[in-house]
Amino acid sequence: MTPRRITPADARQLAVLHASAFERPWDEAAFEALLVTFNVFGLMLDGQGFILCRAVADEAEILTLAVAPLVRRNGVGRALVEAAAQTAHARGADSLFLEVASDNVAALGLYAGAAFEPAGLRKAYYASGADAVVMRRTLNTRA
Ligand SMILES: CC(C)(COP(=O)(O)OP(=O)(O)OC[C@H]1O[C@@H](n2cnc3c(N)ncnc32)[C@H](O)[C@@H]1OP(=O)(O)O)[C@@H](O)C(=O)NCCC(=O)NCCS
């Protein structure tokens, strides 16, 4: 399971995958804009899922991660997170951050198993009223 690098030509597929995973999907134009931003990079497994990240100096952050419902619990999310961590490290980042809703059991389980640790809490951060848990992984070690 080796994710490939995302290019701007993938914007449509990303929008479709994102809509299958989130109640408030990002459209194709939003992905096109992100994918031409110099410090944004992404990895995907075609038809299954993708991860999009931004790198700033020695820190990187996960902007979004989506796996199609029909292929969940097959290790796709884990493979995407590991590939993103390796890519971020190769680009010079020594930490990888993310925000996840405190009621997102699947994502919290994935990140905890991938060596992320809680690094902060943003109360009532999401429209649903859920808190955002900020998590961080040090990139000089592997999960
Ligand atoms: C979160 C998400 C990306 C996980 O993708 P996935 O491909 O199903 O994850 P994996 O199969 O790699 O699972 C890795 C681990 O995460 C945990 N996990 C995944 N789904 C879980 C669930 N529904 N309940 C509890 N733990 C879960 C488990 O520890 C799992 O390991 P295991 O299967 O060996 O027990 C996927 O559910 C998704 O796209 N959700 C909607 C969008 C989303 O929430 N994105 C993240 C926003 S921060």
Structural notes for this entry:
The radius of gyration is 14 Å and the shape is globular. Helix 3 links the parallel strand 4 and strand 5. The protein has one domain (4-138): Aminopeptidase (3-Layer(aba) Sandwich). By secondary structure, the chain is of the alpha+beta class. The protein has helices at residues 11-21, 28-35, 76-90, 105-113, and strands at residues 4-5, 40-45, 49-56, 59-67, 95-101, 117-122, 132-138. The chain contains 4 helices and 7 strands, in the order βααβββαβαββ. The mean pLDDT is 96. The structure holds coenzyme A. Residues 21-22, 65-67, 72-78, 100, 104-107, 109-110, 113 line the site of coenzyme A. The site of coenzyme A (COA) has 20 residues, from strand 4, helix 3 and helix 4.
Short account of what is shown:
It contains four helices and seven strands, in the order βααβββαβαββ. By secondary structure, it is of the alpha+beta class. The longest helix has 15 residues, at 76-90.
Topology:
Layout (H helix, E strand, L loop, with lengths): L3 E2 L5 H11 L6 H8 L4 E6 L3 E8 L2 E9 L8 H15 L4 E7 L3 H9 L3 E6 L9 E7 L5
Parallel strand pairs: 4-5
Antiparallel strand pairs: 1-2, 2-3, 3-4, 5-7, 6-7
The structure holds coenzyme A.
